[in-house]
Amino acid sequence: MTDDAKKPTAAVPAIHQRPAHLARRFNQLCQALIAEALEEQGLTNIEYPALATLAEEPGIDQRRLAEAIGIDRNSVGQLVETLERRGLILRTVDAQDRRARVLHLSAEGRAARDHTRPRMLEANARILEPLAAWEREALLALLLRVVHHHESRARPGAGRRRRPTTQSRSEIRHD
Q1: What residues are paired with 105 via a beta bridge?
Q2: What CA–CA distance (Å, rounded) separates 124 from 118?
Q3: Is there a contact between 64 and 57 (Cβ–Cβ < 8 Å)?
Q4: Shortest CA distance to 31 belongs to which of 43, 21, 45?
Q5: How far apart are CA 27 and CA 19, in angstroms?
Q6: In whole angstroms, what is the distance from residue 168 CA to residue 34 CA?
Q7: What is the pLDDT of residues 127-147, one digit of tens each?
């Protein structure tokens, strides 16, 4: 093992060399680089995936958009309202299901997505920059395997703190 290969773990205390801690730190890094890429267009880290999804799947409804980008129904409703208000998407009533709304990019939305896409690709490349090509492929394959294995937990709201049951103070034991 080379000295360079030893350095990354030496910078992270052993107690923090755990999957959850490293995933949180990796997420921080990803969010920072993605935020830089989106800054010029004034997009957030959840707005761009919505635009990218609608570019790939025009005419999907809000429920399918929520599933595609991994957010809950309430959040997708707020997101769609924001994007529509900014003139980036068009929302119309679905002809087959009058309760559903179908979504399309507006001309401004397509321009924002097309302008931002190269910056997003660059940001994603920067995230994996310290890795050799084979390591990048291996990391992505491993991350996909872990996420797929835990798919039932990889959903909006999973892991949120549960509210304690309502008990009177006299019923709570203080052993």
Answers
A1: 89
A2: 10
A3: yes
A4: 45
A5: 12
A6: 47
A7: 999 999 999 999 999 999 998
Predicted confidence (pLDDT) per residue in 96-109, tens digit: 888 888 999 999 99
At 63, list the tokens.
């429920």
The 10s digit of each residue's pLDDT in 31-44 is 999 999 999 999 99
Using CA atoms, how far apart are residues 60 and 152, in angstroms rounded to an integer? 23
Architecture of domain 14-151: Orthogonal Bundle (1.10)
Dihedral pair phi/psi, residue 103, rounded to 5°: -120, 140
d(CA 154, CA 71): 10
Tokens coding 138: 């291996």
Q: How many CA atoms lie within 13 A of 137 on its CB side?
A: 3
Domain residue spans of the chain: 14-151
